[in-house]
Amino acid sequence: MRPVIAFLTDFGTQDHYAGTMKGVVLGICPDATLVDITHDIPAHDIMGGALELAASYKYFPPGTIFVVVVDPGVGSARRGLAADTGDYRFVAPDNGVLTAVLRETPAKKIVELTERRYARPTVSRTFEGRDRFAPAAAWLAKGIQLTALGRPVADIQRLEMPAPESSADVIRGLVVRVDRFGNLVTNIDRKLVERLGGDVAIDAGGKTISRLVATYADLPGDGVGALFGSTDHLELAAPAASAADRLALTRGTVVTVTRRS
Prior knowledge:
By secondary structure, the chain is α+β, with helices and mostly antiparallel strands. 21% of the residues lie in helices and 27% in strands. The strands form 2 sheets. Strands 7, 8, 9, 10, 11, 12, 13 and 14 form an 8-stranded antiparallel β-sheet that branches.
């Protein structure tokens, strides 16, 4: 099987950045299959990148290498990393963007990208995605061992990932992501809600959500409903409209699920 390298960045597609990284990869490993997860992470949004990566990586074939570049600290003293979880490998800045993935699937090995032979001869202080991260991923795809890229790392930067609070009758969580459709995706998963049992009431930022439904087609025509989306987390959605706009809510909004008496 040809090696797979998947890219997730905040570069967008208007400029040359994403395409240039692919060109570097193909110059080293022309047999690689290149996949774009997204290049539309909001600029500098490390948390957004961490969540999108966690929502997508497990659907790739084992052995996939992920290049994750959401890097407001580019050119600073922050380290570049390569991590191996056994099934997957990740190349990214040491700024917390791997937090959610490594919480689900702990790394067996992590190294700092210090071996210059596996970077481009000149490393730009403004484009390490091209000069450090893309070459490292390409060399991994070509067959080098992760440990060849640099010295082992024991501790890396981690984000404070918000977790829901739950009791016998109430779950309190947050909107952690707003997708391009305006769906408000929370950190409350299906299992937590099912543990409440019976009928539930949902409040988001002081606004009552009309009902919990099974599919987008079941959403109330003139309002906002709730359902479990593709990651099995509770999300608030409106039919053919943006729930975020309709409710005037965004990431960080408190969402409460309460068992009805």
